[in-house]
């Protein structure tokens, strides 16, 4: 079980919770959250995500990650304009924050 902030992920059963509520994630959404939360506090590059989540060594579309990330943020209730769970680090990648921040800059 991996727990960061109030998000819990069980890689063995492929289940996720936010607080006490179970979140239904698709296979790719779960893989994306797992790739980020397992390295919480560290920036994960888009290239790493494409390799790990989509098993792609080339960019099929830069929008693939953005679309899935949007779905994940909505399901987790993370504000897309002021995210406190998954933040974008411009020019570097994405980071699952280890603690809530009220003013994380994208």
TrEMBL record:
Domain of life: Bacteria
Keyword annotations of the record: DNA-binding, Phosphoprotein, Two-component regulatory system
Parts of the chain that traverse the membrane: none
DNA-binding feature ranges: 1-98
InterPro entries according to UniProt: OmpR/PhoB-type_DNA-bd, Sig_transdc_resp-reg_C-effctor, WalR-like, WH-like_DNA-bd_sf
GO CC field: cytosol; protein-DNA complex
GO biological process: regulation of DNA-templated transcription
GO terms for MF: phosphorelay response regulator activity; transcription cis-regulatory region binding
Domain OmpR/PhoB-type: 1-98
Protein name in UniProt: Winged helix-turn-helix transcriptional regulator
Organism listed in the record: Nocardioides antri
Species classification: Bacteria, Bacillati, Actinomycetota, Actinomycetes, Propionibacteriales
